[in-house]
Amino acid sequence: MRKLNAKELRGIKGTKPSLNFRRARKNSIYIVLDNVLDTYNVGSIFRLADAVAAEKVILCGETQVPPNSRIKKASINTTEVVEWEYSPTAIEAISKIKNQISNIKIIGIEQSPKSVPYTKIKTTFPVVLVVGNETHGVSKEVLETCDEIAEIPMWGINKSLNVMVSLGIVLYKILENLS
Known about the structure:
Elements: H1 6-10, E1 27-34, H2 39-51, E2 54-60, H3 69-75, E3 84-87, H4 90-100, E4 105-109, E5 116-117, E6 127-132, H5 140-145, E7 148-151, H6 163-178
Parallel strand pairs: 1-2, 1-6, 2-3, 4-6, 4-7, 5-7
């Protein structure tokens, strides 16, 4: 498949491009956003989902959905080529995925007493990665549904990384381990 540059992506019009994006091979990766509030984070996550050929992004709770000018700008129109849906809660989204796909592993990306270093996460496809609110993180109820919780070590004075950056680190580590 021919890859598009940013100018070409920005030129995609309509909600379903006629290009072969929908038929492109996808990795069985589902990304759940649990009340991610920053629209630039949401847009960047769409861009990341496209980069790793994720199957779907699920926007939950208070997370804004396309069409949204800030999401569009940050995503460089990848909202037009990445499958997505809205769910009222992350719990509902995860439950729906578990009912549809057998043997799917749910991994939360969060700091928690139950978390393990992201480098120790071992998984196969299909997989769900859950990221949370920029201030409060992944909700406790959602963390209880996770098979594993991945944490990125922080050696400086700051307690956490940006939600999209954290997701990117864990996603690429998973892909590295699978290749």
